[in-house]
Amino acid sequence: MLLAPSVDDVKAIIRASATGVLVFSLGIALLAPVALVLGEANAATALLVGAAPAVAMAVLGRRIPTSSLRLTWTRAIVTATTTWIACACVAAVPLYLSGHFVGVDAAFFDAVSGVTNTGHSLVADLDHLPRSLVLLRSWMEVAGGAAFLFVGQSLLEARRALATSLTPGDTMGEHVMPGTGKGLRRTWRTIAALGITGVVGVGVALSVAGVPLASLPITTISLVAAAATTGGFIPNTGAVGAYHSVVVEFMLVVLMLGGATSVGVLAAAARRQHDRIRNDFSFQVYVGMLAAVLAGTMVGLARAGTFEAVVPVARHGIFSAVAAVTTTGLSTVAPELFISDFGVLAPAALVTGMAVGGMLGSMSGGFSTLRMGLLAKGVISDVRKVLQPEGAVSRVGWMRLGRREVLTDAHVRSAATTVMLFLIGILAGATVLLWADGRIALRGALLTATSAIGNVGLDVGVLEPGQAWYVTTTFTILMLLGRLQWLGIFAAIGFVVAIVQGRR
Amino acid sequence: MARDRRSDDAGRAVIGSDERDRRWQRTEEPTWRRALNGIGSVVVMAIVVVLVGLALSWLATLVL
Amino acid sequence: MTTPRTRHRLLIAGFIAALAVIGIGVQWSHDAAPRVPLDVVPAGAEDPESVEARTLTCERTLPDAPTRDLEEVEPVGRVSSEAVNSCPDAFDGQVVVYYGEVVGDVLQRDGGAWTLVNDDAYALTLGPLSGHGDFEGGNSGLAVWLPGQLATLADEPGNADRRGDVLRVNGVVRRADPEDGGGLTLRAIQAEVVFEAQYLETPVNRVQALVAAVFTLVAIGVVVWDRRLRARR
Quick one: CA dihedral A255, A261, A264, A267, positive or negative? Predict the structure, then answer.
């Protein structure tokens, strides 16, 4: 039986969403003068056409009177979902007006890809895209990444447990207070530290690599945003390899690893609590996954004969493995080479890394190392129960940044549900691609679908401008499902259904 | 007397002479230095990843 | 005196009406975008003597594995970047001819420069998309090393307001260039500019400017009104 949400619930959600949309739209509006300075008048007006009405509507939305501003779990999840979708709608307008997208669906696809930190793009003629719109792509990644961290951190702090153990039913009535306290400060400090390090480091590296001064700022911001937020939007089609610089690639590896490490671990590192980090279960699985994907990629590349010397295997293997596990999706080679030249084992290792993703509480996607680890612990626990004498009681625990947690059936069930939903999403996406274009190989379809739902953005030349509308729609939904970990979309759908059918 | 080993989540400074207590005490470091600690850890992690990657690639090219 | 229910309905109606106005404004701006196409590049107007561009099933040829799904390729002659990226193994070590537009940044290094040279429709036949509005897929190109004096050839790469210098490059394809850490590159032996950079003279979209001005004024009005109300409280 569904209980219809009250009018106050709807109003509270609108008010909370309006704040997020306002901040996002102001960021877009600020790009308009930048576009004018760059001599891109049409891009400047396009940015204003998108941002101005959104600002007006957000300001009006914040004026909606409501008796209670407190966000329960359900309200918070629905707010996050509606804010992400609304921000994508706002960003889609200047993208559509740029003339670089076949239709509104393609522009919306790119906008969703940006705010969900995926990195897939249907932009046509990226190499002639106005530079202010390159900055817009970066802004989408930064805003989406920050919002994801902030929302995730707030929800985690409110519950003092894993997001993975939660369903809306468990926490009905519990109040969430996003936007206050150390969660928000920690989030912004983390992003700022990563960003500043990145801008300085990548900027210097690009300058040494020969990037002219005139294009250095935009190229730096674009690459730093892509790596640190694990977004993956590149400023041109040449991939990271277009800079032919190992130093640039190393700096991007640092940023990618930072973006995929949870805020809690980064905060512990800041306080030099290395013991806690070493014992943190999620971090251990993260490191383990990284090592496994590295090994698989290296062996795959060597076995396929793609590269014969140590340096090329290391360079492309390390970068690809880190980009996959952190779900950034950047690459040092042209995307098509993943299918045509990397063999079979290396792409398989990369796909596995992409599906699992980074740490929960970071900006990366995938179903997270923590869920992977909990699933594994669940299996071990079940095997132990079978082997132990009847009546024996065993408790499986794991460390979470200095605190011992006990593995419960709810943890394992929630992790298994999420993983299963991810796999269903991958199969659905691959099926749609294979249906749309018979020339696409199964490997390419699976890789692309995993990349979308894992918010990776590793394009192997399968998704391209002019894609059928049902492909863009399916993959837009997959990216949203992946970012909101399915939960947000289910909560939003349930909320709407409850409004229509719920009992009052 | 049992030393309070609560971490700096509680916001209390722990004064003690043994190494373990010092590890858990709230640092007096300024925010910028703490930020550098965090980024420094990530840089170290990246260096380790590169070294492990180099070792693995050397092994892979040697064996295969 | 309106009831809450009526007020809510009016709010929803107002929201939908606002969305409709915004949608109309956006579509009107989009349709009014002026188009001033560039000249067709002579080199790109001919069909390249190369294989069918998109070979999605081309696989890495292992030493003992039989080749499959590989089209017949001309070992020497003009190639396209899509063919090379689809089957790099087939072109490794071959001397090829490649036409393309310099895009991105020219990275000056010791002994030469790295460039990204695209040969898609936006680079050659049609020109930058904003000039003509015809969609022909995405960008595609190769990393080209211009040694010595050739490095000074490409001084105007393409960007949003121009098609860059179009080069004809005679060079060797390296599938895993050891001097580039294993990257796929085209090392130029000879190169020449066949078409100088050409600037787009796209005029300002006046309809879009008008719509932007109206929307911005409304937004400023709403913000000012909101501030005044808050100040009164």
Answer: negative
Query: What phi-psi label fits residue B53: left (phi over 0), alpha (psi between -120 and 50 degrees) or beta?
Result: alpha
Whose tokens are 């690893």? That residue is A257
Packing angle between helix A369-387 and helix A281-304, nearest 10 degrees?
100
Of A192, A257, A298, the CB nearest to B42: A257
Q: For residue C177, what are the contacts with CB-CB under 8 A and spacing of at least 6?
A: C183, C184, C185, C187
Of A45, A236, A337, the CB nearest to C184: A337
ipTM: 0.87
DSSP string, C105-164: EEEEETTEEEEEEE-STTTTTS--HHHH--------EEEEEEEGGGGGT--S-BBTTEE-
CA distance C233 to A442: 63
pLDDT at A54: 96
- Contact call for residues A280 and A361 (beta carbons, < 8 A): no
Cα A302 to Cα A307, B58, B59, B64, C89: the distances in Å are: 6, 10, 10, 6, 15
Segment holding A85, helix H or strand E: helix A73-97
Q: What is the rounded distance in angstroms from the CA atom of residue A378 to the CA atom of residue A396?
A: 9
Q: What is residue A66's DSSP assignment? A: -
Which residue does chain A place closest to C20, by CA atoms?
Answer: A53
Q: Do B42 and A295 touch (CB under 8 A)?
A: no
Place of tokens 């290396």: A346
The per-residue pLDDT for range C82-129, each reduced to its tens digit, is: 888 888 888 888 889 999 999 999 999 999 999 999 999 899 888 899
What is the least distance, in Å, from the CA of C48 to any CA of chain A? 21
Q: Round to whole Å and give the CA distance between C3 and C11.
A: 12
Q: Is the Cβ pair C105, A219 closer than 8 Å?
A: yes
Write out residues in chain B with pLDDT < 50, as ranges: 1-18, 21, 24-25
Q: Which of A44, A130, A244 sits opposite C180 (nearest CB)?
A: A244
Q: Which long-range contacts (CB under 8 A, 24 or more apart) does B6-15 make?
A: B7/A273, B7/A276, B7/A402, B8/A271
pTM over 0.80: yes
Instruction: Write down which chains contact chain C via at least 3 CB pairs under 8 A.
Output: A
> Count H helices, E strands: chain A?
19, 4
Cα separations in angstroms, A143 against A28, A140, A236, A317, A396: 11, 5, 21, 30, 38
Q: How many angstroms separate the CA atoms of A3 and C101, rounded?
A: 61
CA quadruple A124, A125, A126, A130: dihedral sign: negative
Tell me the average confidence (pLDDT) per consecutive run of 10 residues in chain A, 504 residues long. Answer: 76 88 95 95 96 96 80 80 93 96 94 94 93 96 83 55 36 38 66 87 95 94 94 89 94 94 85 86 92 94 87 93 94 82 88 91 86 89 82 76 82 87 93 90 90 91 86 94 83 82 66
Q: How far apart are CA A271 and CA B14, in angstroms?
A: 14
Assess contact for A339 and A383: CB atoms under 8 A. no
Cβ neighbors of A217 (< 8 A, separation 6 or more) are: A203
Q: Which amino acid is at C81?
A: S
The encoded tokens of residue A464 equal: 């391209």
CA triplet C177, B51, A276: central angle to 5 degrees? 145
The closest of A108, A68, A78 to A497, measured between CA atoms, is A78
